[in-house]
Design a protein that fits this description.
Blueprint (H helix, E strand, L loop, with lengths): L1 H10 L8 E5 L4 H12 L3 E6 L7 H13 L8 E4 L5 H10 L6 E4 L13 H20 L8 E7 L28 H20 L3 E6 L2 E2 L8 H11 L2 E5 L3 E2 L2 E2 H17 L5 E4 L5 E2 H12 L4 E5 L15 H7 L7 H15 L21
Parallel strand pairs: 1-2, 1-4, 2-3, 4-5, 5-6, 6-11, 7-10, 8-13
Antiparallel strand pairs: 9-12
Helix pairs in contact: 2-3, 2-8, 4-5, 5-6, 7-9, 9-11
The structure holds nicotinamide-adenine-dinucleotide.
Keywords: Isomerase, Membrane, NAD, Transmembrane, Transmembrane helix
Protein name: NAD-dependent epimerase/dehydratase domain-containing protein
Family: Belongs to the NAD(P)-dependent epimerase/dehydratase family.
Length: 369
């Protein structure tokens, strides 16, 4: 059928020994960037996304369009509309389409911790049942041609400790993960156990990556840095949680981590989880100060005590395991990464804020302030 042909075309690598990767969540923030990077280096990519309305669907459609128009693939990267819970669809993609996927980069999930207070079942459906369905479909591929799986867990599995700072130590993979502070974290923790079971029973190659607060261009509007940028521009109040500190990790570093994990999984089964962070925790208040500088406008700050809504007070990654096994090294400081975000943000929303424009120099006459 035409469908199978389109899938095969997009899945075909254009370099010798290239990979063929099914990227779930490809219209999402991290999935979009990974799909772009894979196509740019000549790997075959097919995306899958259900385009749900958790946040602005037009942003997801724009990412899909950019992938389709990317000149890296001959005919661009195909992002199919479909759900990871659709067993027939996944079986057809992985076993019936004739596309020989070497890898699955599984990034589709219900993200965000606060939304679980409103729609808890969406987390179970996508992050638990959806993961099981995906791994079942991979296990159903004949042994010799089974794709390796790399999937997104989360730093949220580390949860909170009593003083919220992990005793000043970065989190490493051996640390406790038995006290999730949100349903989101609980489903990611469950996902890690499920992944382990599938590698144990079916011999699947499954590598988990615990991302630490990813930010950058084409980011998620529900995340704090993005919402703060919008609020600052609009002159709306910005609510800060006292003491909140995050290991903000720039998207390009996360993409490098994902590609390194895919490459490593090609050579040998790793079957474990790795921290993918920046290793430099920054108070959220300082993140806001950088945004103020880049946007050329002061935030109307309101500092409140941390509520029990699923957020954690502190994250900080120890990435020595990922450095050892994957050669992962974060390279982007927060100021440089936020500048890239703000440049994109102003362009995408056609915001003309004169002076700021990501810190570029403008003639004084054009400045609003
Ligand atoms: P995102 O919401 O932008 O991307 C996820 C995509 O998956 C969305 O486009 C969504 O439409 C799609 N999706 C959701 N449920 C689906 C389903 N059932 N079937 C098909 N598609 C579905 O989020 P993101 O920030 O790109 O996150 C990617 C992955 O990384 C997620 O697994 C997330 O939990 C994890 N993660 C992200 C961060 C971060 O800071 N962004 C941190 C830790 C972990």
């Amino acid at each position: 059928a035409a469908w199978d042909r389109a899938v095969r075309r997009s899945a075909t690598p254009r370099r010798a020994n290239g990979m063929s990767v099914l990227v779930t969540g490809a219209a999402g923030f991290v999935g979009f960037h990974c799909a772009m990077a894979l196509a740019a280096r000549g790997d075959g990519v097919v995306g899958l996304d259900n385009f749900n309305a958790y946040y602005d669907v037009s942003l997801k459609r724009s990412r899909q369009r950019l992938l389709a128009e990317s000149s890296h693939g001959h005919a661009g990267v195909l992002v199919l509309a479909g759900d990871i819970n659709d067993a027939a669809l996944l079986r057809r993609l992985l076993s019936g389409s004739g596309a020989a996927f070497t890898h699955v980069l599984h990034l589709a999930a219900q993200a965000g911790v606060r939304h679980a207070l409103r729609d808890p079942q969406s987390y179970v459906a996508s992050n638990v049942a959806g993961l099981v369905n995906l791994l079942e479909s991979v296990a159903a591929v004949s042994n010799s041609s089974r794709p390796a799986v790399v999937w997104a867990s989360s730093s949220s599995v580390y949860g909170l400790n009593d003083n919220g700072s992990n005793g000043g130590r970065p989190f490493s993979e051996e640390d406790r993960t038995d006290r999730p502070a949100s349903l989101y974290a609980a489903t990611k923790k469950a996902g890690e156990a499920i992944a382990h079971a599938y590698s144990s029973v079916h011999g699947l190659s499954v590598t988990g990556l615990r991302f630490f607060t990813v930010y950058g261009p084409w980011g998620r509007p529900d995340m704090a840095y993005f919402a703060f940028a919008r609020a600052i521009v609009a002159g709306d109040p910005v609510t800060l949680y006292a003491g909140a500190t995050r290991d903000f990790t720039f998207i390009d570093d996360v993409v490098r981590g994902c590609l390194a994990a895919l490459d490593a999984a090609k050579k040998k089964k790793l079957n474990r989880v790795y921290n993918i962070g920046n290793t430099e925790p920054v108070p959220v208040a300082r993140m806001v100060a950088v945004l103020e500088k880049l946007l050329g406008k002061k935030a109307r700050k309101r500092v409140v005590a941390m509520p029990r809504n699923g957020d954690v007070l502190f994250t900080h990654a120890n990435v020595s395991l990922a450095a050892r096994d994957l050669g992962y090294r974060p390279t982007t400081p927060l100021d440089a990464g936020l500048r890239r975000f703000v440049d994109w943000f102003l362009r995408y929303y056609k915001i003309d804020n004169g002076a700021a424009a990501g810190g570029k120099q403008q003639p004084p006459a054009k400045r609003k302030k």
